[in-house]
Design a protein that fits this description.
Elements: H1 8-38, H2 42-70, H3 73-92, H4 102-134, H5 144-176, H6 185-195, H7 201-213, H8 224-259, H9 267-273, H10 275-286, H11 290-314, H12 320-328, E1 336-337, E2 342-343, H13 352-373, H14 380-402, H15 416-422, H16 427-454, H17 460-476, H18 479-487, H19 490-519
């Protein structure tokens, strides 16, 4: 696989895989951790999740600026790895649950997330720039696309295994303390702490039933207050130990990067040696009319506006879709017993998307290659429009299976047996992520390709930054999913995302001819 590629590619890919492994451990459990640790509602958790996910992409711009200004790409990447490890450490330090001071401990967690986001900003884009630099050598230039495909594949290999580790560590700690995992218990435990004896009778009955079912040593719960405090503390320490696994992944990534640092090119040196070339590009760019430059910028911003709605819908995977898996999916059928721990939990579905990315990328490439050979390959704007349509179909798929499900607030008045009776098969989540992954492969890499093709030469960096900014805008709106999830029927929640992606597809289709002219 690496035989004809630059020697630094495998090291960069492995360093990135370790970093992404740690990152996706966190992303698999983040929303459930915040809810279980602090007793926050899905909506309040969504505000934190949205802000964090948006800051990742905004700070990627800052990281690029820092590397450009300091001319020290390698040092910036190294600093990013160290900062991310520190951020995970801040979150991973075991603290008691329930927390003695909600404001203090929540602020500490949010600070840790900010440190992670800033470290990610220093690392992510600059490592990609470094990989791109490897293929500026004419010897490797023809292998650029396949090189990035290998690099992207390693990202998703890390992303596939991360949720398994997160779940395994959390459930291991539960088992050490003679508890079993139950997705519904943390919410009920926090409700008990808030309401005590005034807790609704049905909710209290559900808590009692589940509390006795998760005690592996067979003891019956006689003091609910003791059980609730103990279960929440063990459950969330398990999450924090999972964050420690992310630190280990970061340290491995750091070692790989430092050992192979001298194999990597230095983009800053390349910039200095190519000063004459840059001047030539600038003189050439002057020949591009102001009208053409404006048309290109308008076209790019039109695409940016469309993809905002894709990221708003797609990144529900770590938010409202994870809550859906927790509340409505039959998780009991996914139970891999490893002896020392069990792999079961709503977070497991976070491995499905990276698995399909790795599995489907070659098929999508083959499909487009076949169409190209026949002269029928659609343009990039048409592919993006098709991708938005596929994303709409994904939510139509989920909406159909949610039509008979009760609203979230109705679950509190149902018995555990009634809730188990309405749970849906895990295959629905797998099917959903399959369709969403196909949409992703039509939009994400092709969107980047469209930006690099259409952006005026002197605005390449700025327009790539605007693509990240559009992603950040979409991510900043993720909290909408939580508001819908808790306030409207479940099917209506997904209908909103059907409407957003379908409307974006229609807008994109209406612009295809214009975008094709601009791109050509």
């Amino acid at each position: 696989m690496f035989k004809k590629h630059p020697k630094g590619l495998i090291a960069a890919a492995l360093a990135n895989m370790g970093e992404r492994f740690g990152f996706y451990i966190m992303m698999a459990i983040l929303t459930l951790f915040i809810s279980a640790k602090f007793g926050l509602s899905e909506t309040m958790t969504g505000y934190i999740y949205s802000a964090f996910y948006a800051s990742i992409y905004i700070l990627a711009l800052v990281g690029g600026v820092i590397a450009d200004k300091t001319k020290n790409f390698k040092g910036t990447i190294l600093a990013g790895l160290i900062m991310m490890a520190i951020g995970y450490l801040i979150i991973a330090i075991p603290t008691p649950t329930p927390v003695p001071s909600l404001g203090l401990y929540l602020a500490l967690t949010c600070f840790g997330l900010l440190v992670i986001a800033f470290g990610n900003g220093l690392f992510k884009g600059n490592l990609q720039a470094l990989v791109g630099q490897m293929y500026d050598n004419p010897k490797y230039s023809s292998l650029r696309d396949s090189g990035f495909q290998i690099f992207y594949m390693f990202i998703n290999i890390g992303g596939f295994f991360a949720p398994w580790i997160a779940i395994g560590v959390r459930n291991w700690w539960l088992k050490v303390n003679h508890f079993d995992y139950d997705a519904s218990l943390p919410e009920l435990c926090h409700q008990y702490l808030e309401q005590g004896s005034s807790m609704p009778a049905q909710a209290m009955d559900n808590l009692s039933t589940l509390a006795n079912s998760v005690c592996l040593d067979g003891t019956q719960v006689t003091d609910m207050n003791v059980f609730v405090n103990s279960y929440l503390d063990v459950f969330n320490r398990g999450f924090q130990y999972a964050f420690m696994a992310a630190i280990v992944a970061m340290l491995i990534s750091l070692v790989i990067y430092v050992v192979n640092k001298n194999r990597f090119p230095d983009p800053a040196k390349k910039e200095n040696s190519n000063a004459d070339t840059v001047s030539a590009v600038s003189r050439e760019d002057i020949k591009m009319s102001a009208t053409e430059i404006k048309q290109r910028i308008y076209a790019l911003f039109a695409v940016f506006g469309v993809v905002i709605f894709f990221w708003l819908s797609f990144h529900q995977n770590g938010y409202s879709l994870t809550y859906f898996a927790r509340d409505y999916v039959d998780l009991s059928v996914i139970n891999i017993n490893l002896g020392f721990t069990q792999i079961k939990g709503a977070e497991i579905f976070q491995c499905v998307n990276p698995f399909f990315v790795v599995a489907l990328t070659p098929l999508i490439m083959w499909f487009f290659g076949m169409l190209k050979a026949k002269g029928k390959e659609p343009s990039t704007p048409m592919k993006i429009a098709i991708g938005m349509g596929i994303a709409a179909l994904a939510y139509v798929f989920l909406m159909v299976f949610s039509l008979t499900l009760p609203a979230k607030d109705a679950l509190s008045s149902m018995t555990t047996a009634e809730i188990d009776a309405i749970r849906v098969t895990p295959w629905i989540m797998i099917g959903l992520y399959f369709i969403l992954t196909v949409a992703e492969l039509f939009i994400s890499p092709l969107g980047l390709s469209f930006v690099s093709k259409v952006a005026p030469p002197h605005l390449q960096g700025l327009m790539q930054g605007c693509w990240l900014a559009a992603t950040a805008v979409g991510n900043s709106l993720l909290f909408i999913g939580g508001i819908l999830y808790t306030t409207v029927p479940i099917w209506a929640c997904w209908l909103v995302f059907v409407g957003a992606t379908a409307a974006s597809m229609i807008v994109m289709l209406s612009m295809v001819k214009w975008l094709e002219r601009v791109a050509n």
